[in-house]
Design goal:
Elements lengths: L2 H23 L12 E9 L2 E8 L5 E8 L4 E8 L12
Antiparallel strand pairs: 1-2, 2-3, 3-4
Length: 93
């Protein structure tokens, strides 16, 4: 699977997931996103496998990891919630 087709597939899965789960807790009226609201943070292809990290324009702290296993023709989808971002000052050591 080439990168363009893989990214298109990934964005579709993110939209499907977000439009269901984001509206379970949203206030009225429901909000929906399209693939135009999804962007790729990181993308890699190694041999017949692909992996992408994606996010959306929604400020909900979610990001998504999609992996394509070319040997088995399987797609794995993970959704994560950003919990914390801390800064640590490192010395000159």
């Amino acid at each position: 699977m080439n990168n363009e087709k893989f990214v298109e597939l990934c964005k579709g899965y993110v939209v499907d997931y977000a439009n269901v789960f984001m509206n379970l807790t949203s206030i009225n009226p429901p909000a929906y996103i399209t693939t135009n609201d999804v962007y790729v943070v990181w993308l890699n292809r190694t041999l017949q496998n692909n992996k992408a990290l994606l996010s959306t324009t929604i400020s909900d702290g979610m990001y998504y990891e999609v992996t394509y296993n070319g040997d088995k023709n399987e797609l794995y989808f993970d959704a994560y919630k950003h919990v914390v971002n801390r800064e640590f000052k490192l010395g000159d050591n």
